[in-house]
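Archive entry. Fields below.
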Amino acid sequence: MLKIKDLKVEIEGKEIIKGLSLEINKGEVHAIMGPNGAGKSTLSAVIAGRDEYVVTGGSIEFEGENLMDMVPEDRAHAGVFLSFQYPVEIPGVSVTNFIKTALNESRKARGLEAMPAKDMLKLMREKQALLEMDKQFMSRSLNEGFSGGEKKRNEIFQMAILDPKLSILDETDSGLDIDALRIVANGVNKLKNKDNAVMIITHYQRLLDHIIPDFVHVLYDGKIVKSGDKNLALELEEKGYDWIKKEIEA
Amino acid sequence: MTEEDKLLEEVTSAEYKYGFVTDIDSDTIKNGLNEDVIRLISSKKNEPEWLLEWRLEGFKKFKELVEPEWANVHYKKPDLQAISYYSAPKPKKKLASLDEVDPELLKTFEKLGISLDEQKMLTGVAVDIVVDSVSVATSFKAKLGELGIIFCSISEAIQEHPELVQKYLGTVVPQTDNYYAALNSAVFTDGSFCYIPKGTRCPMELSTYFRINQAGTGQFERTLLIADEGSYVSYLEGCTAPSRDENQLHAAVVELIALDEAEIKYSTVQNWYPGNKEGIGGVFNFVTKRGICHKSAKISWTQVETGSAVTWKYPSCILKGDNSIGEFFSVAVTNNFQQADTGTKMIHIGKNTKSTIISKGIAAGKSNSSYRGLVKIMKGATNARNFSQCDSLLMGDKSGSHTFPYIEVKNKSARIEHEATTSKIGEDQLFYCNQRGIGTDAAIGLIVNGYCKDVLNQLPMEFAVEAQKLLSLSLEGSVG
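PREDICTED_STRUCTURE:
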């Protein structure tokens, strides 16, 4: 599904990603772990198409197409979803209005008619229940005055509605209390199937207790320096990132 | 190129969607402004003697006044001698139904998406259309007539209800009020008149579509709306104008009279031709709008201003009666080289008077948007309250936004609150929308409409939808 080959990325002349390769197939869950400044969030932003980041080398293919040729909204239409670490506020635009617009824009891009109001309502109710969100939530302005947990739940709610092929969760666990973490993880697990894939970017093991990864990769200084199964995450949690640093420098 | 630069370019390249000219044979009098022209207008319209005198008085005052220069706008002053002050579509016979309306004209409305039939059937809106200076169609008149509601062109009102016109015309905006109001008083050729009798709730939204349609003719509309004691009316006014290379002057006067316990909601969507992207052409919109509230009366002005090259407009409320309420909700969008200096005046005279001002300015391209508002609490206005909120949204780094709030308080019991913010559409917001599959144009529409929600919510439903489309359209590059 996603093939990243020898990717190199700069921002403002500074190289952040220094030759990264990664392949994600459908049905898989990958966790990207690593210390601050390793390039984790840069990787997610580049896949989503944020344009301050300059790709200086390598390639990103998604479902056989060159992702780099596509504008962010086309990537979204193709099935790439990013759950933001810091979702922005859009005052005056309700959660309902926003997600309705997003869904219908995606449908339009696929040559489909706008979803009838009745079906839309049904779909929203269903996903609302999945993320344990109350009704008032839907009419609030997007992310305005939301708690950290509400923001992240709203991200996963949007993911549930848009039903992407590849979901990138950028530090979705940060700022979540235990209950919110459980709700969010439960949501992601329910949405997971054999045809989609999830990429989890995180510092910590704790989200991986709830969403079990098939592969764990350690990102350090712009490269994937170590890959393994879920046990690698546990090992990291136990030994800390210094362990990786030492191993690399050795 | 950053996202914002691209956005800026797209926004700047948005062309006026309604730029077309209808080919209608017109009866136009020779250019120029003098007493003879005013006499000619008055006689062409078969007006009573008192009105001619009233006009001439306005003209006398006009000659003594100079064009105001205090507004934060810069433009080449229009040559008032180069304008024809009267132009009426032919044929001029009275029309009983739409079938009799010039088909060319109907086509124009079709292009604008304003199908009269549709309006009639779907929305129950009675529409009085002003094309150039003569009303060509009035609908729903019979139904309104049953309730004693008078809704017609001002020319007709002068003929049919001279006592009402004479009693109220110029009582809120006198001929001597200001340069453009004086000019309007001297030469106004048409506009709307509305009277709601005591205790009557007007059962439908009243609507007038104004349209400038004759090269080189200025429009001088005069609107007079009287809500008698305990009555209610919601009045809608909307307009689009065809593309022109020369500037067109539009100097309207609107007077609202809300008698005891009456309520008037006056909504405007203004989309005059703003000029092209080099800043050539476009309508000059110098409007005087004012209402007076008697005891426990209420006037709400709601406006969505997206058009005109230069806008100079301050819909105001004189809160004369005790417990009266004035409201002003405004969205003003400027793009390219547009300039807008708009706001309101709330004059508190009576006790326990309340006013609310919500103003949202959006400036894109190289445009300039100013809010100018006055809140005045007179000596006798015990317990007066005002809340003002003035927000500005800037797009790109070449646009400007200014706020000029004036507050005059002569009574210590007054409570006045003023809030102001300035923000920009952030790349973060756009990227967030993009990532959800919402393209940049649609994202701008979404964000701007969200930003203006407090004002748009004040509009009647069908008008709100139109206004939302207009807002997106004004700021989009790829639509059309």
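CURATOR_NOTE: Chain B has a mean pLDDT of 80.
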